[in-house]
Design a protein that fits this description.
Layout lengths: L1 H18 L4 E5 L7 H16 L7 E4 L3 H9 L8 E4 L12 H11 L3 E2 L10 H10 L1 H12 L2 E5 L1 E2 H7 L4 H9 L2 E5 L2 E4 L4 E4 L15 E5 L6 H11 L3 E5 H8 L3
Parallel strand pairs: 1-11, 2-3, 2-5, 3-4, 5-10, 10-11
Antiparallel strand pairs: 6-7, 7-8, 8-9
Helix pairs in contact: 1-10, 2-3, 3-4, 7-8, 9-10
The protein binds 6-O-phosphono-beta-D-fructofuranose (F6P).
Protein backbone atom coordinates (compact mmCIF):
# COMPACT_ATOMS: atom_id res chain seq x y z
CA UNK A 1 0.00 0.00 0.00
CA UNK A 2 2.90 2.30 0.91
CA UNK A 3 4.55 1.55 -2.44
CA UNK A 4 1.35 2.35 -4.32
CA UNK A 5 0.96 5.60 -2.41
CA UNK A 6 4.51 6.73 -3.20
CA UNK A 7 4.00 5.74 -6.82
CA UNK A 8 0.88 7.84 -6.87
CA UNK A 9 2.82 10.83 -5.46
CA UNK A 10 5.44 10.42 -8.21
CA UNK A 11 2.70 10.33 -10.77
CA UNK A 12 1.03 13.47 -9.38
CA UNK A 13 4.39 15.26 -9.29
CA UNK A 14 4.81 14.72 -13.01
CA UNK A 15 1.27 15.69 -13.88
CA UNK A 16 1.31 18.88 -11.80
CA UNK A 17 4.69 19.83 -13.19
CA UNK A 18 3.39 19.59 -16.77
CA UNK A 19 0.01 21.16 -16.18
CA UNK A 20 1.42 24.13 -14.26
CA UNK A 21 4.46 24.52 -16.56
CA UNK A 22 6.99 24.29 -13.75
CA UNK A 23 10.57 22.99 -13.62
CA UNK A 24 9.83 20.49 -10.83
CA UNK A 25 7.21 19.59 -8.28
CA UNK A 26 7.85 17.76 -5.00
CA UNK A 27 4.96 16.33 -3.00
CA UNK A 28 5.38 15.24 0.62
CA UNK A 29 2.90 12.77 2.17
CA UNK A 30 0.01 14.08 4.31
CA UNK A 31 -2.01 17.27 4.55
CA UNK A 32 -0.49 20.06 6.57
CA UNK A 33 -3.92 21.67 7.18
CA UNK A 34 -4.34 19.35 10.13
CA UNK A 35 -1.05 17.52 10.45
CA UNK A 36 1.96 19.22 11.99
CA UNK A 37 4.27 16.40 10.83
CA UNK A 38 3.29 17.08 7.22
CA UNK A 39 4.12 20.77 7.71
CA UNK A 40 7.54 19.84 9.10
CA UNK A 41 8.06 17.48 6.19
CA UNK A 42 7.09 20.28 3.79
CA UNK A 43 9.63 22.51 5.51
CA UNK A 44 12.29 19.81 5.30
CA UNK A 45 11.73 19.27 1.57
CA UNK A 46 11.83 23.03 0.99
CA UNK A 47 15.05 23.20 3.00
CA UNK A 48 16.51 20.35 0.88
CA UNK A 49 15.74 22.29 -2.32
CA UNK A 50 17.60 25.28 -0.93
CA UNK A 51 20.52 23.23 0.39
CA UNK A 52 20.94 21.59 -3.03
CA UNK A 53 21.88 25.02 -4.41
CA UNK A 54 24.55 25.85 -1.83
CA UNK A 55 27.96 26.41 -3.31
CA UNK A 56 26.50 27.84 -6.51
CA UNK A 57 24.41 30.68 -5.09
CA UNK A 58 25.23 33.72 -2.96
CA UNK A 59 22.03 35.62 -2.18
CA UNK A 60 18.60 34.37 -1.16
CA UNK A 61 15.43 36.46 -1.00
CA UNK A 62 12.80 34.94 1.28
CA UNK A 63 9.16 35.75 2.11
CA UNK A 64 7.43 35.48 5.49
CA UNK A 65 4.76 33.15 6.86
CA UNK A 66 4.56 29.92 8.82
CA UNK A 67 5.68 27.75 5.90
CA UNK A 68 8.88 29.73 5.38
CA UNK A 69 9.41 29.53 9.15
CA UNK A 70 9.10 25.73 8.82
CA UNK A 71 11.69 25.72 6.02
CA UNK A 72 14.09 27.77 8.15
CA UNK A 73 13.48 25.52 11.16
CA UNK A 74 14.29 22.40 9.15
CA UNK A 75 17.49 23.73 7.60
CA UNK A 76 20.48 21.90 9.02
CA UNK A 77 23.41 23.90 10.41
CA UNK A 78 25.91 24.22 7.58
CA UNK A 79 28.36 26.59 6.01
CA UNK A 80 27.22 28.34 2.87
CA UNK A 81 28.15 32.01 3.41
CA UNK A 82 24.83 33.23 2.09
CA UNK A 83 23.38 36.70 2.15
CA UNK A 84 19.69 36.44 3.04
CA UNK A 85 17.19 39.25 2.63
CA UNK A 86 13.39 39.63 2.84
CA UNK A 87 11.86 39.41 -0.64
CA UNK A 88 9.40 42.18 0.13
CA UNK A 89 8.40 44.63 2.84
CA UNK A 90 5.48 43.90 5.18
CA UNK A 91 5.74 43.28 8.89
CA UNK A 92 2.52 41.88 10.37
CA UNK A 93 2.05 41.31 14.08
CA UNK A 94 3.92 38.08 14.68
CA UNK A 95 7.65 38.58 14.70
CA UNK A 96 8.49 34.92 14.14
CA UNK A 97 6.50 34.89 10.89
CA UNK A 98 8.18 38.00 9.51
CA UNK A 99 10.54 37.66 6.57
CA UNK A 100 13.13 39.63 8.59
CA UNK A 101 13.15 37.01 11.33
CA UNK A 102 13.18 34.12 8.85
CA UNK A 103 16.03 35.68 6.83
CA UNK A 104 18.02 36.08 10.03
CA UNK A 105 17.35 32.45 10.99
CA UNK A 106 18.44 31.11 7.58
CA UNK A 107 21.58 33.26 7.71
CA UNK A 108 22.42 32.04 11.22
CA UNK A 109 22.02 28.41 10.15
CA UNK A 110 24.16 28.81 7.06
CA UNK A 111 26.96 30.91 8.47
CA UNK A 112 25.88 33.86 6.37
CA UNK A 113 24.54 37.32 6.98
CA UNK A 114 21.09 38.82 6.71
CA UNK A 115 19.76 42.22 5.75
CA UNK A 116 16.57 43.66 7.20
CA UNK A 117 13.68 45.40 5.47
CA UNK A 118 11.57 47.50 7.83
CA UNK A 119 8.73 48.65 5.63
CA UNK A 120 5.16 48.09 6.79
CA UNK A 121 2.20 47.69 4.44
CA UNK A 122 0.48 50.71 5.94
CA UNK A 123 2.74 53.33 4.36
CA UNK A 124 1.36 55.66 1.70
CA UNK A 125 2.85 55.70 -1.80
CA UNK A 126 4.46 59.06 -1.00
CA UNK A 127 6.03 57.77 2.24
CA UNK A 128 7.33 54.70 0.42
CA UNK A 129 8.94 56.89 -2.22
CA UNK A 130 10.69 58.96 0.43
CA UNK A 131 11.96 55.80 2.13
CA UNK A 132 13.26 54.36 -1.10
CA UNK A 133 15.01 57.62 -1.93
CA UNK A 134 16.44 58.50 1.47
CA UNK A 135 16.86 55.36 3.56
CA UNK A 136 20.11 53.67 2.56
CA UNK A 137 19.33 50.41 4.37
CA UNK A 138 15.97 50.03 2.63
CA UNK A 139 17.51 50.84 -0.73
CA UNK A 140 20.34 48.35 -0.24
CA UNK A 141 18.02 45.54 0.92
CA UNK A 142 15.64 46.03 -2.00
CA UNK A 143 18.52 46.02 -4.49
CA UNK A 144 19.88 42.86 -2.90
CA UNK A 145 16.47 41.17 -3.06
CA UNK A 146 16.07 42.10 -6.70
CA UNK A 147 19.48 40.64 -7.53
CA UNK A 148 19.16 37.51 -5.39
CA UNK A 149 19.91 34.31 -7.28
CA UNK A 150 17.35 32.40 -5.23
CA UNK A 151 13.79 33.44 -4.49
CA UNK A 152 12.10 31.31 -1.82
CA UNK A 153 8.47 32.11 -1.07
CA UNK A 154 5.22 30.98 0.51
CA UNK A 155 1.67 31.10 -0.84
CA UNK A 156 -1.50 31.91 1.11
CA UNK A 157 -5.23 32.00 0.43
CA UNK A 158 -6.33 35.45 -0.71
CA UNK A 159 -9.13 35.67 1.88
CA UNK A 160 -6.89 34.54 4.74
CA UNK A 161 -4.11 36.94 3.77
CA UNK A 162 -6.53 39.86 3.33
CA UNK A 163 -7.80 39.18 6.86
CA UNK A 164 -4.28 38.72 8.25
CA UNK A 165 -3.32 42.08 6.74
CA UNK A 166 -6.36 43.79 8.22
CA UNK A 167 -7.90 44.83 4.87
CA UNK A 168 -11.18 46.75 5.13
CA UNK A 169 -14.45 44.97 4.46
CA UNK A 170 -14.78 46.92 1.18
CA UNK A 171 -11.29 45.92 0.03
CA UNK A 172 -11.99 42.29 0.88
CA UNK A 173 -15.23 42.32 -1.10
CA UNK A 174 -13.38 43.93 -4.02
CA UNK A 175 -10.79 41.16 -3.99
CA UNK A 176 -13.48 38.53 -3.81
CA UNK A 177 -15.34 40.12 -6.75
CA UNK A 178 -12.08 40.07 -8.74
CA UNK A 179 -11.85 36.32 -8.07
CA UNK A 180 -8.68 36.57 -5.96
CA UNK A 181 -7.83 33.03 -4.86
CA UNK A 182 -4.20 33.12 -3.80
CA UNK A 183 -1.54 35.52 -2.60
CA UNK A 184 2.24 35.52 -2.79
CA UNK A 185 4.79 38.35 -2.61
CA UNK A 186 2.02 40.88 -2.11
CA UNK A 187 0.25 39.80 -5.34
CA UNK A 188 -3.33 38.56 -5.23
CA UNK A 189 -4.11 36.24 -8.17
CA UNK A 190 -7.27 34.77 -9.63
CA UNK A 191 -7.60 31.13 -10.64
CA UNK A 192 -6.49 31.92 -14.20
CA UNK A 193 -3.20 33.31 -12.88
CA UNK A 194 -4.02 36.96 -13.42
CA UNK A 195 -2.67 39.36 -10.78
CA UNK A 196 -5.71 41.33 -9.66
CA UNK A 197 -4.14 43.39 -6.85
CA UNK A 198 -0.64 44.16 -5.56
CA UNK A 199 0.05 45.54 -2.07
CA UNK A 200 1.73 48.89 -1.90
CA UNK A 201 5.23 48.02 -0.71
CA UNK A 202 8.82 47.61 -1.88
CA UNK A 203 10.76 44.58 -3.09
CA UNK A 204 9.96 41.65 -5.34
CA UNK A 205 6.54 40.83 -6.79
CA UNK A 206 5.44 37.84 -8.86
CA UNK A 207 6.01 40.00 -11.93
CA UNK A 208 9.78 40.12 -11.26
CA UNK A 209 10.16 36.39 -10.96
CA UNK A 210 12.15 35.94 -14.19
CA UNK A 211 15.15 37.84 -12.86
CA UNK A 212 16.04 35.12 -10.34
CA UNK A 213 17.95 32.01 -11.44
CA UNK A 214 16.17 29.78 -8.92
CA UNK A 215 12.58 30.16 -7.77
CA UNK A 216 11.21 27.88 -5.04
CA UNK A 217 7.60 28.07 -3.81
CA UNK A 218 6.64 26.05 -0.73
CA UNK A 219 2.97 25.69 0.18
CA UNK A 220 0.74 22.85 1.30
CA UNK A 221 -2.66 21.91 2.72
CA UNK A 222 -5.83 21.06 0.78
CA UNK A 223 -7.35 24.40 1.83
CA UNK A 224 -4.69 26.16 -0.24
CA UNK A 225 -5.22 24.18 -3.49
CA UNK A 226 -6.89 27.06 -5.38
CA UNK A 227 -4.40 29.54 -3.96
CA UNK A 228 -1.47 27.43 -5.15
CA UNK A 229 -2.93 26.99 -8.66
CA UNK A 230 -3.61 30.73 -8.98
CA UNK A 231 -0.08 31.71 -7.96
CA UNK A 232 1.61 28.96 -10.01
CA UNK A 233 -0.31 30.08 -13.10
CA UNK A 234 0.95 33.61 -12.53
CA UNK A 235 4.50 32.38 -11.88
CA UNK A 236 4.83 29.57 -14.48
CA UNK A 237 8.35 28.62 -13.49
CA UNK A 238 10.58 27.18 -10.82
CA UNK A 239 10.04 24.53 -8.18
CA UNK A 240 6.86 23.87 -6.21
CA UNK A 241 7.10 21.97 -2.95
CA UNK A 242 3.65 20.92 -1.74
CA UNK A 243 1.85 18.13 0.10
CA UNK A 244 -0.46 15.28 -0.80
CA UNK A 245 -3.55 17.09 0.54
CA UNK A 246 -3.03 20.08 -1.73
CA UNK A 247 -1.85 17.99 -4.70
CA UNK A 248 -4.93 15.77 -4.72
CA UNK A 249 -7.22 18.77 -4.77
CA UNK A 250 -5.11 20.60 -7.35
CA UNK A 251 -5.52 17.56 -9.64
CA UNK A 252 -9.26 18.25 -9.71
CA UNK A 253 -8.73 21.90 -10.65
CA UNK A 254 -6.31 21.63 -13.58
O1 LIG B 1 2.98 37.29 4.52
C1 LIG B 1 4.03 36.66 3.86
C2 LIG B 1 3.57 35.43 3.10
O2 LIG B 1 4.67 34.82 2.48
C3 LIG B 1 2.47 35.68 2.09
O3 LIG B 1 2.92 36.25 0.89
C4 LIG B 1 1.87 34.30 1.94
O4 LIG B 1 0.58 34.34 1.41
C5 LIG B 1 1.88 33.84 3.38
O5 LIG B 1 2.98 34.49 4.00
C6 LIG B 1 1.94 32.37 3.59
O6 LIG B 1 1.87 32.14 4.97
P1 LIG B 1 1.67 30.69 5.60
O7 LIG B 1 2.83 29.89 5.16
O8 LIG B 1 1.66 30.94 7.06
O9 LIG B 1 0.36 30.19 5.09
Amino acid sequence: ECFLRLNNLDDMQERLCQALQLDSVYIVPGNCDDDQTAKEELGRRGADCLTALFGTVRAVAVSGGSTMAAVAAQLPQQNASLTVVPARGGLGNRVKLQANYIAEMIAAKTGGKSHMLHVSDELSAAALKVMMESDEQTKASVTLAQRADVLLYGIGRADVMAARRGFSEAKRRELQAAGAAGEALGCYCNLEGKIVYVTNNVGITLEDIRQHSHVIAVSGGAAKAEAIVSVMRACKRGVLVTDEGAAEKIMTLI
